[in-house]
Amino acid sequence: MKRLVCAVLLMCACGSGDGGESSGGMAGAAGGGAGKSGAQAGQTAGMNPTPGPAHFFPSGNPWTRDVSGAAKDPQSANIIAWLDAQGFGLGRFQIDFGIELLRADANTPRRAFTPTKDFFTPDCDNVPVPLPAGGNIEGNNGYACASDPDGDCHLLVWDEPGQKLFEMWRAHVTEGAFRGGCLAVWDLTKVYPATGRGDQCSSADAAGFPIAPLLFNADEVAAGEVAHAIRFILPNERIRQGQYVRPATHGTRATTGPMQAPPYGVRLRLRSDYPLDMLPTAGARTVAKALQKYGMLLADGGNVALTAQSDRHTKAKWEGLLGSRDLQAIRPKDFDVIDMGTPVPLTLDCER
Fold first, then answer.
1. Contact assessment for residue 67 and residue 271, using Cβ atoms and an 8 Å cutoff
2. How confident is the prediction along the chain (352 residues), in pLDDT tens digits per residue?
3. Is the pTM here over 0.70, yes or no?
């Protein structure tokens, strides 16, 4: 039976809709890239997932949709006014650099896992997961969820030759055991229908999205273009209760926002007249341009608004390129809501 409530927990994610990003603990500009030993650095060589996330799915997917000319939703003004009065989580437009994306090849060993209480049927997939040597999960130096057992501890692996994305919530891997919450396996050869992996179905994120295609990484920003939409999150009380909109396929009982609040799946687009020159770095301007062209999609619950990939396994590094508060001048009032279509009532009755 699927989960129904988690409203009192501040660090629930995936099905419950509040993320480990709520701690803000990995939101420093270094993005977790510091502190590796020489051995660790050698082990992680070659994991850089270039080309960037824009190239994961075939053309026609919602993650690379150009919305620069898309119509505003009729509710845009009301939603933006309400959200501007509340503000983003932490009261600013901040970036979290904590999520990792690992790269597997044909020789990467795969390991079965034992589902935990955070594995939901039929939403989640139970198959062996590739675990690259020297890899790590979100917010940790290795595969063990040691920093915060109740945190998100996302495990994201790109199986490039197999053309699959393995994304797990609350992974915990030791020599003796591999326990995991919801695992979503995405087929990178297909454009999914509007109902994604299944309507009312979760993934490793509360909205039912894939995570990796919405992360921006240091290599993309250093190259001067982020060619896809960006993952963003809000506190549960600032997400509309009882509804979601496409491309989301899921919501949570933990959200408590009124009808003026943005629902899961909403796409916000930075206004075309936003003064990019006022932003402090070239990296910030690159991300802002992506927000103008592709927008940002409400994917999960938490406090640190935008999600970037850690620089642990990328060639470029965040230091000197983009800081966690380089976009903090941007307010909710600087966005428009893209046409949302007809909201879907939340039932949590997943149909794969």
1. no
2. 444 333 333 334 444 333 333 333 333 333 333 333 332 333 333 344 444 566 799 999 999 999 999 999 999 999 999 999 999 999 999 999 999 999 999 999 999 999 999 999 999 999 999 999 999 999 999 999 997 767 899 999 999 999 999 999 999 999 999 999 999 999 999 999 999 999 999 999 999 999 999 999 999 999 999 999 999 999 999 999 999 999 999 999 999 999 999 999 999 999 999 999 999 999 999 999 999 999 999 999 999 999 999 999 899 999 999 999 999 999 999 999 999 999 999 999 999 9
3. yes
Strand 155-159, strand 164-168: pairing: antiparallel
Burial environment of residue 192 by CB neighbours within 10 A (0 to 12, 13 to 18, 19 or more): middle
Q: In this structure, how many other beta carbons lie within 10 angstroms of the beta carbon of residue 319?
A: 15
Alpha carbon distance 103, 27 (integer Å):
23
Task: In whole angstroms, give the CA distance from residue 166 to residue 49.
Answer: 14
341: left (phi over 0), alpha (psi -120 to 50) or beta: left
Output the CA–CA distances (angstroms, integers) from residue 19 to 9, 56, 310, in the order listed: 10, 24, 16
